[in-house]
């Protein structure tokens, strides 16, 4: 009997060789890597949650898209001035924000707002026209827009914290990081003479009124 057991063990070790074990582990690796079904957005539990998340992603993507177009317009006018490198630095951060939201939207099959062609033109014109007022005009525009975006991100953070902060941990991390970047841009604008522009408060209020309207419609269209 002992000999039979030894023979059976010998035969099994030949069948399940080290090479076969390594191959099985390789096959299992992709399953382990994909065990988490999402990176930022959890799977919606119902239609109400899906609608909420879709709106968040849609409007945030639209906001970052518009910000990119504004900086593009500013660079078209001031790119070769002394302010060019500073504007480019802020624009580079906005590009990263936009790419991240594109990635999240694709992962969750969320369509962008249908108004992107409008924000494409409007954003560029806003950036270019305020830059024509000089560095102070461009910085005033930056302060107004980034303050609006920061306030909007803060409202989303409060809403998600009230619903379920643990469930939306990764999304909150993204929004908080981007909110901090926007506030940094806002402060940069103030440090570079935004308030020295004649009619600063009038321009700022007008831009922020437009931002609020853009946020409202981008969530819904």
TrEMBL record:
Metabolic or biological pathway: Cofactor biosynthesis; ubiquinone biosynthesis
Keywords of the record: Iron, Membrane, Metal-binding, Mitochondrion, Mitochondrion inner membrane, Monooxygenase, Oxidoreductase, Ubiquinone biosynthesis
Keyword Amino-acid biosynthesis: no
Cellular component per GO, a single term: extrinsic component of mitochondrial inner membrane
Keyword Glycoprotein on entry: no
GO molecular function: 3-demethoxyubiquinol 3-hydroxylase activity; metal ion binding; oxidoreductase activity, acting on paired donors, with incorporation or reduction of molecular oxygen, NAD(P)H as one donor, and incorporation of one atom of oxygen
Role of this protein: Catalyzes the hydroxylation of 2-polyprenyl-3-methyl-6-methoxy-1,4-benzoquinol (DMQH2) during ubiquinone biosynthesis. Has also a structural role in the COQ enzyme complex, stabilizing other COQ polypeptides. Involved in lifespan determination in a ubiquinone-independent manner.
The protein's name: 5-demethoxyubiquinone hydroxylase, mitochondrial
Protein species of origin: Seriola lalandi dorsalis
